[in-house]
Specification:
It is built from 28 helices and 22 strands. It is an alpha+beta fold.
């Protein structure tokens, strides 16, 4: 039985692959049987001519028998499909310009969507590589109410992580993790690279066997110090150690501590940081050892260093709702236990209303996802619009060709070809063109889309889309949908009517039929192009607005110099003295305007202390209060203006009465309707000495360009008991041009292995503009692409219309119509459609504006300047697209046209 099946299968495959040989064998076999049958009739006394005729009749005819045998092979459909593909290929070769236009339009539309899917899949859909059970793993988000607004983020402290581990019962694993750029190596070979600190339970969330060695154990991750062991990332192992197996036992100088290598992660293992290749860990350390290395102190009860994230694996059968309730109860218990000796603290905790949320493991899908995530989704929708415009363009081209072949189609129908077969042939041609467009689209997504991936996931070359089955599958689905959507309707439309109508249809009748549908498709292209260009204009205006926003300090000329002591131990007074020497030396350098130590850096590092004000129960409920500390040059260095009172003077020393400068917003919220000068603030405890307000400075944007509840208070560096570890330097000209010179000039003051880094403040703040920059870049790029596709569609419609109306135009000119009027008539036909698209697109832009307003910065979604500018651009492009066909219409020779007809 099985042997018969394989024999039959081999025969069918051979019938497809070696069709000519099988046909020759079939013909020879049939002729042999007919010859034998003819001999039988001849032996009965029938003449040879009559014997041959009786034999053919007995077989039912040679060709008919062949057809029956071919049908029994079961390969007729495949053979027919192959024939259709060959027919379509000949048609594509016969019209290279037409085919190239379709392939290019689909390549751009499909390529844009493939590139955006790769981004969306990486950020929002695809779970981290090797994750054991994505359905049971969640990222933990913590919320509390501040200034009557709920604030949510996924960062917590090690002490909170310990509490939530002990107080919960719904999880198989609770893991903490974080990633910092830390110096690795010594001397000139030292480089700051991403280093992760993770709980020992972290690797239990993954099915990722080490490529070499082992991961660290729970006893090696015990607070407060942990064990100095390290696991290398696969890429770092390959690049720095050449993939050598004897790397186990090697010593690495990470930060201030020497670590022993005990293992290597497998290839493609990025943990939870795979969405951003700039944060993919090169080295993994036990969380306890990581924290001790960064800050050598016991973190068991330190709730203030909130730089760690948390992931959990729910136990089997535990729902998200049950686990959320469990961890929220644990969070309340943890918050209450922070200050066990303060009887009023429990009441304050209830006012904060802390709660925990279990969110998706992808941070970009979490409750505190930034505006960049919304931009990704918007741009994905924009890519779909570009695909729709491309498909409308392609459908227009298919319709034009199908209508031009109406007489050919009618003749084939008259010869007995079924309508279904003709539709299948036309659709096969559409599928073949779409397949070429899809393949070209993947190339566009791989090479042209590298810029998109670099913008969103900082991965310009790391993703090979041709080897990504998910992207390929989506591209195939989009390609088939585009082929059917653009080819089926024109094919059916071209077959409408009976055979007599089709045979008798003239050019004018075909032109009238095509005009309405083609104009409708053109209207859709114009409308959608206007919508995209309006979005581009709004985001460009937003980006301009945010770039011109006064932040309360200068950005361009300021450098941030940070100290890395690399384990060099110095008492606090000596460390502060070092920072004063650094500031004094920097201020004396050529090209430096001013320098000051600093406790906080906008959009990067923040410090704060507990504030107490008479008459206010809880200052922290009124907003975010950030502490800045500096010397007498602080405000000059940053360019922050003093609005009232004074800044710091040489008299504000360590033994002088404590003073502070507050931001204008802080003064308004703490003492509404009063002058803040002379008011009292107490730091760290309500029994502390009074710190007197001596000045009011302008408000700063420290964490966000949009937040209205960011408040700042300033302390003289001499009265701040801690060292800052940072220096702000103001230079003449651009900070990036002076960064290395300033760093080298100060490095000589650093003791031992300690070193400095100098970073322009603009490099720190610039990423905060990413959402508006991404929106402007992508909307402009896709809007321009859509406009080009629409312009090509308009040109093809007008040019085809002129070709079909040559007789009419010749008659008009022969009857005395001025050529300029004929040109104006052709241009008017295109402009009417485009103007209708501008109106509809503007209405659609106004309707969708309320959804995009949250993504804009100081920009109205109904900005008339944007709408007028977009209308002008679209109309100008439409005039250019119609110019060539209109000029061709004006050059029609009526004598030649009428004689030809």
């Amino acid at each position: 039985m099985l042997s018969e099946f394989w024999s039959d299968l081999r025969y069918r495959v051979r019938a497809l692959v070696r069709r000519r040989d099988v046909e020759r064998e079939l013909d020879a076999e049939l002729r042999f049987h007919i010859a034998r049958e003819t001999e039988k009739y001849a032996q009965r006394g029938v003449s040879f001519e009559h014997a041959a005729r009786h034999a053919l009749i007995a077989f039912g005819g040679l060709e008919r028998t062949k057809e029956e045998i071919r049908d029994r092979r079961g390969t007729a459909f495949i053979e027919s499909l192959v024939h259709d593909i060959r027919y379509a290929a000949r048609g594509i070769r016969a019209k290279p310009a037409f085919s190239a236009g379709i392939v290019l339009a689909l390549a751009l539309g499909i390529g844009a969507n493939a590139a955006m899917f790769a981004v969306v899949d990486r950020l929002l859909l695809r779970p981290p590589a090797y994750l054991r059970d994505p359905s049971r793993v969640n990222r933990v988000y913590l919320s509390q109410t501040v200034a009557r607004q709920e604030v949510t983020n996924d960062y917590t402290s090690i002490a909170r992580l310990v509490d939530l581990t002990h107080f919960t019962h719904s999880f198989d694993a609770v893991a903490g993790f974080t990633t910092f750029n830390i110096a690795v190596g010594d001397g000139d070979d030292a480089r700051e690279i991403p280093v992760s600190g993770v709980s020992a339970s972290y690797f239990r969330l993954f099915d990722a066997r080490p490529a070499l060695g082992r991961y660290f154990r729970a006893d090696e991750d015990r607070l407060p110090t942990g064990a100095p062991v390290a696991v290398l990332g696969y890429g770092y192992w390959q690049s720095q150690f050449g993939g050598r197996s004897n790397v186990l036992g090697a010593k690495l100088h990470v930060g201030r501590t020497w670590f022993t290598v005990i293992g290597v992660t497998p290839q493609r293992f990025d943990g939870f940081d795979g969405g951003d290749v700039t944060r993919v860990p090169a080295i993994w350390l036990p969380l306890a050892a990581f924290a001790w290395n960064m800050r050598p102190e016991d973190h068991t009860r330190d709730y203030h260093w909130q730089s760690f994230q948390m992931a959990v694996e729910r136990a089997p059968g535990v729902s998200v709702a049950q686990a959320t309730a469990d961890i929220s109860d644990a969070l309340v218990r943890s918050r209450v236990s922070e200050y066990p000796d303060d009887p009023a603290w429990a009441t304050k905790v209830r006012a904060l209303r802390p709660r925990a949320t279990l969110g998706p493991v992808q941070s970009d899908r979490g409750p505190d996802a930034g505006p960049e995530t919304k931009i990704v989704l918007w741009v994905s929708g924009v890519a779909l619009i570009v695909l729709v415009i491309a498909c409308a363009n392609v459908a227009n081209l298919h319709l034009a060709r199908a209508l031009a072949r109406r007489r050919e189609i009618a003749l084939r129908l008259a010869l007995g070809v079924s309508r279904a077969r003709l539709v299948r042939q036309l659709l096969t041609e559409s599928l073949l063109l779409a397949a070429l467009g899809g393949a070209a689209g993947l190339a566009v997504a791989q090479w042209g889309g590298a810029a998109i991936r670099a913008l969103f996931i900082h991965d310009a070359a790391g993703t090979v889309l041709f080897a990504d089955p998910r992207t390929i599958a989506v591209t195939i689905i989009v390609t088939v949908a585009a082929a059917v959507g653009t080819g089926l309707a024109p094919a059916i439309y071209a077959l409408r009517g009976d055979i007599a109508q089709l045979l008798g249809a003239g050019a004018r009748e075909a032109g009238a039929r095509r005009s309405r549908l083609r104009q409708s498709l053109l209207l859709v292209q114009a409308m959608l192009s206007v919508v995209l260009l309006i979005g581009a204009g709004l985001f460009v205006r937003s980006l301009v607005n945010v770039r011109h926003l006064h932040l309360g300090y200068d950005v361009g000329p300021v450098l941030v110099v940070t100290e890395n002591m690399r384990g060099t131990k110095m008492p606090t007074p000596a460390r502060k003295a070092l920072e004063e020497r650094l500031a004094t030396t920097a201020a004396s350098m050529p090209g430096v305007v001013a320098a000051t130590p600093a406790a906080s850096v906008p959009f990067w590092a923040f410090e704060g202390r507990s504030l107490f004000v008479t008459g206010i129960d809880s200052v922290s409920l009124l907003g975010r209060f950030t502490m800045q500390a500096g010397d007498t040059a602080y405000f000059r260095t940053l360019g922050t203006r003093i609005l009232n009172g004074r800044g710091f003077t040489a008299g504000d020393g360590a033994t002088a009465p404590p003073v502070t400068v507050v931001s204008a917003g802080m003064g308004r919220v703490l003492w509404p309707g009063q002058n803040p000068l002379g008011k009292c603030i107490r730091l760290d405890a309500d029994t502390a000495p009074c710190t007197t307000v001596v000045g009011v400075a302008e408000d700063l944007h420290l964490r966000s360009f949009t937040s209205a509840r960011e408040f700042t208070y300033y302390l003289p560096i001499a009265q701040d008991t801690e060292s800052t570890g940072m220096l702000l330097v103001r230079v003449r000209g651009r900070a990036d041009a002076s960064a290395e010179r300033v760093r080298r000039g100060l490095q000589a003051l650093m003791p031992g292995a300690a070193y400095l880094t100098a970073t322009p403040l603009g490099m720190i703040i610039d990423p905060a503009m990413d959402s508006w920059r991404l929106g402007a870049t992508m909307f402009v790029a896709f809007g321009a692409l859509a406009l080009v596709l629409a312009a090509v569609g308009l040109y093809s419609v007008i040019a085809h219309g002129v070709a079909q109306r040559r007789q009419e135009l010749g008659v008009r000119l022969a009857l005395g119509a001025p050529r300029p009027r004929v040109v104006a008539m052709v241009v008017g036909d295109g402009l009417r459609t485009v103007l209708a698209g501008v109106v509809l697109g503007s209405m659609a832009g106004l309707a969708t504006g309320r959804w995009s307003s949250a993504l804009l910065f100081h920009e109205s979604p109904t900005d008339p300047i944007v709408y007028v500018a977009v209308a002008a651009v679209v109309v100008s492009v439409a005039l250019l697209a119609t110019a060539a066909p209109a000029v061709a219409a004006g050059r029609v020779d009526p004598t030649v046209t009428l004689r030809g007809d």
